[in-house]
Amino acid sequence: MKKGIIILAAATLGLAACKQEKKGAGGLLYTIHHSAGNEKIKEGDIVKMNFIQKNDKDSVLSSTFDSETPAVFPAQKKMYAGDMNDVLTLFGEGDSATFKVNLDTMAFHSKQPKPEQFKNDKYITFTVKIEKVFKKKAGEADSTFNKRATEFFQADYKASSEKKKAAEPAKLKAYLEDTKLATKTTASGLHYIIETPGSAEKPALGDTVLIDYTGRVTKKGKDGKYKIFDTSDEKLAKAENEFKAGKPYGPQKMPVGGTIPGFTEALQLIGKGGKIKVIIPSNLGYGEQGAPQVGIMPFSPIAFDLEIKDIIKGKPAPATPAPVAAAPVKK
C-alpha cells in the first residue's frame, strides 16, 4: 500500500514539475502543459501548429483555434538563443505549451525597435498545440521529402475542409434555434425574414442601392454574443467595441451584383424602405476560405440585417467602402 502511495506521489510531482514555468536562453519563459514524449522538432521539419498569441495585457491578438486554420511552416535555423525557432526545439508532436519570447532580446538581436503594438510589452506570449511534425527520413533526398510533405499536407487540408463542410448544416441549425428565427428559404439556400417589404419596385442587377447593414458571424464568442464583423451603424459599432476609426459610417452605396451571391440575392427581395434579415450559407458567401481576418470561418454561414434607403436605377455608381462580407466580387 505504501509503495503505491509513493508511486502516485512521484507521478503527481512529475506532472506538476512539467507544468512549472521554466527559464530559457535570451529571457525566454516557457511552460509545457503536456508532453507526448515524441521526438523534438528540429531544423527542416515541417510543423502544423495551432496557437493563441497574446500581449502582456492578456489580450488575444490572433488565434488559429478561432480561425480553424492551423499554421503549417518549416522549422528554421535559429537566429539567436531564445528566438521563435529556438523555442520550437523544446517541443514534439502532440505537445502543448505556453512560451514567452522576450521582446527586448528580439529587438537587440534584430537591431529593430519593438513592433508598435508591443512597444509597452516585455513579452509576446504564445499558447501552442503541436498538431503534426513531418520529418525527413534518413538518407531521403530533399526533393522526395518535399514531394511527400506536399502530398501529405494537401490531403490533410482536404480532409479538414470536408469535415468543416459536413459540419456547416449543424452550425446553421444551431444558430437558427438559438436566435429563434423562423426563416423562409430560397431555392439557393438563403435563409431570410422580411421585416418590412418596402416599395413594390425592387432593385435589379445593374442598379445601385443605398443601404444600412450589420453583418455578424454565427458562432458565439466567449462572451456568449454573435460578433459584428462589419456595420454601417456607428452607434452600434461603438456599443459593441467594433468601431473603426477612419471608416465611413452611415448608409453606403452598393452595386447590385458586385458582391457575394447571398448578399446580391438578399437585396433583390425587398424594395426601397425594406428591411430584411438573412443568413447566408457559405456556398453563397465565403466558401471554404472564409474571411478569418474578420472572424468568418471556412464553411460558416453569416448573418445580415439590411435596410434599403434608396434605389438608383441604371448603371452602378462607384461604391463607397462596403461591408467586409460584401466587398469581394462574386465567383
Number-wise, the strands total 14
Note the run of SSEs as H and E: HEEEEHEHEHEHEEEEHEHEE
Mean pLDDT: 90
Cα radius of gyration in angstroms: 25 Å
Unreliable spans: 1-17, 326-331
**What's the helical proportion of residues?**
25-40%
Q: What proportion of the residues form beta strands (DSSP E)?
A: 25-35%
Query: Which descriptor suits the 3D outline?
Result: elongated
Largest beta-sheet characterization: 7 strands, antiparallel
Q: What structural class is derived from the secondary structure elements?
A: alpha+beta
The number of helical runs is: 7
Q: For the terminal residues, how far apart are their CA atoms?
A: 69 Å
EC number: 5.2.1.8
Keywords: Isomerase, Rotamase
Catalytic activity: [protein]-peptidylproline (omega=180) = [protein]-peptidylproline (omega=0)
Protein name: peptidylprolyl isomerase
Please name the defining characteristics of this protein.
disordered N terminus, 331 residues, alpha+beta, 7-stranded antiparallel sheet, 26% helix, 14 strands
Task: Describe, in plain words, how this protein is organized in 3D.
The chain has 331 residues and is an alpha+beta fold. It has seven helices and 14 strands. The chain has helices at residues 2-18, 64-67, 84-88, 103-110, 142-179, 234-239, 261-267, and strands at 22-23, 29-34, 46-54, 60-63, 71-74, 96-102, 123-134, 184-185, 191-196, 208-220, 226-231, 252-255, 275-280, 302-312. Strands 1, 2, 3, 4, 5, 6 and 7 form a seven-stranded antiparallel beta sheet that branches. Strands 8, 9, 10, 11, 12, 13 and 14 form a seven-stranded antiparallel beta sheet that branches. The longest helix has 38 residues, at 142-179. The chain is elongated and about 70 Å long. The model is unreliable at 1-17 and 326-331 (pLDDT under 50).
